[in-house]
Amino acid sequence: MLLGAFLAGFIGSLSGLGGGIIIIPLLTVFLGVDIHYAIGTALVSVIATSSGSAAAYVKEGITNMRLGIFLEIATTIGAVGGALLSTIAPTSFIAVLFGLTLIFSSINSLRKKQEHVVKESSDLAVKLKLNGTYPQNGEVIAYGTKNVIGGFSMMGVAGMMSGLLGIGSGAFKVIAMDNIMRIPFKVSTTTSNFMMGVTAMASSVIYIQKGYIEPGICMPVVIGVLFGAMAGAKVLVKANPKKLRVFFAVLIFVLAINMIYNGLSGKI
C-alpha cells in the first residue's frame, strides 16, 4: 500500500492531476478495498498534499485568496452534498462515474494551456473585490474577473464531484476559473490547489461520521503520496513535461476504462 501510494503521488505530480485521483483505482481494483473506504482515504491524501503545496503558492503571491475563500462557499456546500450522496449511491454507479471523471481529467490535462489576462471586471466582481495581481518575470500583472455567478455555480458542481468521488476535482475548478471567470491560468491552478484542502475537509467530515476513514489505510497512503509527489516534482524539473503528460494521460485513461468495466460488471 505504501509503495502503491508512492507511485500514485509520483504519477499524480508528473501528470498534474494529483495523487488522489490514482489512489482510488489502486485501492479498489488492485488491493480490493471497499470504494467508500478508498474515497475516504483519497480525501485525506488530498488534504495533506493540498496543504503542503498551497502554502508555497500563497507565499509567492500567485494565489487569489479572496477569490478562493469566496468560491469555497460553493465547493463546501457541494462537497457535503456529494459526500452524503456517496453514502447512499450504489458502488457500481460511483465506479462508473469515477471512470468517466478520470477520462475527462486526462483529456483536460493534455489541452493547450493559454495565459490570457482580462483587464476589466464585471460589476459583481468589482463589488466583491475579486480582481487581483500576480508576479511574472519580475513584473506585477493585474487581471480582472468575469461571470462570477457562472463560476460560482460550476464550483458547486466541482465540490459535489469531490465529495462524491474523493478527488480534488481540480479539472472542474480550473474550468470554472479559467474558462468561465477568465482568470489567468497560473492564478486559477494555484487558487484551485488552495481550495482543494478545504473542500476535501468538508466532505471528509461526513466520511468520518459514517466510519469510512480507516487510520490503518490512511497513514501509509498519505505518507506514500507525499513522498511520491515530492519525488515527482524533482523529476518534472529535468524531464520533458509534454511527453510525460501524454504517457500518464494514456495510463490514467486505461485505469478509467478498468474502473468503468469493474463498475458495470459489479466487481466494485
Provide an overview of this structure.
- By secondary structure, the protein is mostly helical.
- The chain contains eleven helices and two strands, in the order ααααααββααααα.
- A two-stranded antiparallel sheet has the order 1-2.
- Helix 1 (2-15) packs across helix 10, helix 7 crosses helix 9 and helix 8 packs antiparallel against helix 9 (185-209).
- The longest helix is centred in the first third of the chain and has 26 residues, at 35-60.
- The mean pLDDT is 84.
Brief descriptors of the model:
268 residues; mainly alpha; two-stranded antiparallel ribbon; 76% helix; 4% strand
Arithmetic mean of pLDDT: 84
Strand count: 2
Indicate the percent of residues in helices.
over 70%
Largest sheet: 2 strands, antiparallel
Report Rg. 18 Å
> What structural category characterises the helix and strand content?
mainly alpha
Report the total helices. 11
CA-based shape: globular
First-residue to last-residue Cα separation: 18 Å
